[in-house]
């Protein structure tokens, strides 16, 4: 699943709107929308991803590929289908 889709899934699960998340991050709603816009074709920069995940009480972690994925965790991929 792509990072943008993961962020939207977390927001949906936590019932957090783009406006509320933008407020937590101290950015405009328009900037938040642009950050999450999957049709833009742009990947989310690591720093922005870390900040956005932290605002949702998540963190970005690199771990061995054979490690068990904890419940509630997401695996980031380039492909939306994975």
Describe the structure.
The protein is an all-alpha fold. It has a single domain (1-76), classed as Orthogonal Bundle (434 Repressor (Amino-terminal Domain)), CATH 1.10.260. The chain is 46% helix and 0% strand. The protein has helices at 3-14, 18-25, 29-36, 46-55. Helix 2 (18-25) crosses helix 3 (29-36). It is globular and about 40 Å long.
Helix-residue proportion: 40-55%
What is the CATH topology classification name?
Answer: 434 Repressor (Amino-terminal Domain)
Q: Shape, please?
A: globular
Beta fraction = under 5%
Helix count equals: 4
The counted number of beta strands is 0
Query: What's the level 1 CATH class?
Result: Mainly Alpha
Name given to the CATH homologous superfamily: lambda repressor-like DNA-binding domains
The overall number of domains is 1
Average pLDDT over all residues = 92
Q: SSE string, helix = H, strand = E?
A: HHHH
Can you tell me the CATH architecture?
A: Orthogonal Bundle
**Helix- and strand-based class?**
mainly alpha
Give the low-pLDDT segments.
Answer: none
The radius of gyration over CA amounts to 13 Å
């Amino acid at each position: 699943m792509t990072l943008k889709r993961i962020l939207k899934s977390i927001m949906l699960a936590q019932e957090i709107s783009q406006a509320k998340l933008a407020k937590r991050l101290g950015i405009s709603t328009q900037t938040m929308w642009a950050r999450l816009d999957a049709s833009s074709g742009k990947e989310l920069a690591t720093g922005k991803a870390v900040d956005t995940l932290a605002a949702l009480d998540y963190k970005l972690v690199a771990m061995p590929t054979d490690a068990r994925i904890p419940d509630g965790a997401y695996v980031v991929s380039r492909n939306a289908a994975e």
